[in-house]
Design goal:
Blueprint lengths: L1 E6 L9 E7 L7 H9 L3 H5 L12 E5 L8 E8 L6 H17 L8 E4 L11 H21 L7 E6 L5 H9 L5
Parallel strand pairs: 1-6, 2-4, 2-5, 5-6
Antiparallel strand pairs: 3-4
């Protein structure tokens, strides 16, 4: 597995699936999730009221992009309550979303998945530590599937819009086995 860090909008990355998030109680997404929502013509915001567990910790909402952005699928992972979200939770929601990407029948043949770093916006987490948690979760999930002889994605792209955070993300990922 290769982990890369790229500066830019998650809406522009060419991959099979992108992972964004939603805190519990949020009815109109902001940040990267909001950018994806706008690019999809409000699909996420329209779906939130129908998503019975909207924003519950670890819950997954999977949406097809219908060609509106380069990624084929958007995986929205629930982060739970913002005041209860930390680095362990970053690992757990990242793992949940990556397990979904590996197991969703609609995701057969995935090669590239892109994610944001969960919790560094509204959650206020340290960028480097949160990036390390995302990389650790990705490696653990990848190793688990590799041991089982399964073939899953071979590249995880960590996207960040702000150029100011890229070096911190790279330092966080640097402790991982692959880059």
């Amino acid at each position: 597995m290769k982990i890369t860090v790229q500066q830019g909008s998650i809406t522009d990355v060419e991959c099979d699936a992108i992972i964004v998030n939603l805190f519990l109680g949020v009815t109109y997404p902001g940040g990267a999730t909001g950018a994806v929502d706008r690019a999809l013509g409000g699909l996420i915001s329209r779906t939130i009221p129908k998503w019975k567990t909207s924003g519950q910790f670890g819950e997954i909402l999977s949406l097809q992009t219908e060609g509106k952005i380069p990624a084929k699928e958007v995986i929205v992972v629930g982060l739970g309550r913002a005041d209860q979200f930390g680095y362990e939770e970053v690992e757990r929601v990242t793992a949940s979303a990556l397990h979904h990407a590996a197991n969703d029948p609609g995701m057969n043949g995935i090669k590239k998945v892109a994610t944001i770093i969960h919790g560094i916006g509204i959650g206020g987490l340290n960028v480097e530590k949160a990036a390390a948690a995302v990389a650790k979760a990705a490696e653990d999930v990848y190793r688990g599937y590799s041991k089982d002889g399964c073939s899953i994605w071979d590249e995880l792209i960590i996207m960040e819009f702000s150029a100011d955070k890229i070096d911190d993300i790279k330092r966080g990922v640097c402790g991982s086995d692959d880059q």
